[in-house]
Write a structure and sequence with these properties.
The protein is 47% helix and 7% strand. By secondary structure, it is an alpha+beta fold. Bound molecules: glutathione sulfonic acid. The site of glutathione sulfonic acid has 14 residues, from helix 1.
């Protein structure tokens, strides 16, 4: 048989690029979602060095106006920033499990709880980090307001108590199934660990849930995912 006649089967799915910082709490949300959906083989990673302020340089701002990570680049050159937008895209591609909800009710609850996890925990800790600690250093942190940062730290602690109350009555953040809402809280607690803001001792349900979450391979292996294909930008 002539090699020109060989049918190599269906076309391989297009590769995507994710620009991120491998250990970052926001990038973790996308990395965990990728692993839960076993889409890792369709993605290559490009590292953007936050500590050198690469995310604030014109080349990166051309990809994402907001100057934040992660950013997803599709094979047609489209850039999608914002974790929730990226994970919505990935969830719509194919494959179980569904992370953003199957029914209208599930979708509404997951969106609500993921937004709350951002507002009350993850984003609050991020503001604390950037305003009330040295953050990414003086070259990157050109404006800091420590009072605002400490208020956000307190908001995050209140958020942890709220989530603890939720997890006392249901197994996952948005109800009976693992979802993007859990992944957002995981991102929040990864950030809490980095800034040494422990979950209050009385939040036993949140602590037990987090211990369970850390057993998931998607959470455990999220940082090593990018090693073979690293392409610095
Ligand atoms: N709303 C954005 C999202 O959800 O994608 C926020 C993203 C974000 O803050 N990402 C962090 C960032 O770019 C990445 S990491 O700190 O988690 O690694 N921070 C840098 C900065 O200067 O804000």
């Amino acid at each position: 048989m002539n090699s020109d006649n060989i049918d190599f089967g269906a076309t391989k799915p297009a590769m995507m690029t994710i620009y991120d910082w491998p250990t970052g709490p926001y990038p973790a949300r996308v990395r965990i979602a990728l692993a839960e959906k076993t889409l890792q083989s369709r993605v290559r990673f490009g590292t953007v060095d936050l500590w050198k302020g690469e995310h604030k340089k014109p080349e990166f701002l051309a990809k994402n106006y907001s100057g934040t990570l992660p950013v997803l680049e599709l094979d047609d050159g489209t850039f999608i920033a914002e974790c929730t937008a990226i994970t919505e895209y990935l969830d719509a591609l194919d494959g179980a499990p569904t992370l953003t909800g199957r029914t209208p009710r599930e979708k509404g609850l997951i969106h609500m709880m993921s937004k709350r996890a951002e507002l009350e925990l993850l984003d609050a800790i991020s503001v604390y980090f950037h305003h009330a600690t040295p953050g990414l250093g003086p070259d990157v942190e050109t404006y800091q307001n420590a009072e605002w940062g400490f208020r956000q730290r307190d908001k995050a602690l209140k958020g942890m108590r709220y989530l603890d109350a939720i997890l006392k009555r249901q197994p996952f953040v948005a109800g009976e199934v693992f979802s993007m809402a859990d992944i957002t809280v995981i991102g929040g607690l990864i950030f809490a660990g980095l800034v040494k803001l422990p979950v209050p001792a009385e939040c036993g349900a949140l602590q037990a849930w987090y211990a369970r979450m850390q057993e998931r391979p998607s959470v455990k292996n999220r940082v090593t995912m990018s090693e073979p294909t690293e392409t610095p930008v």
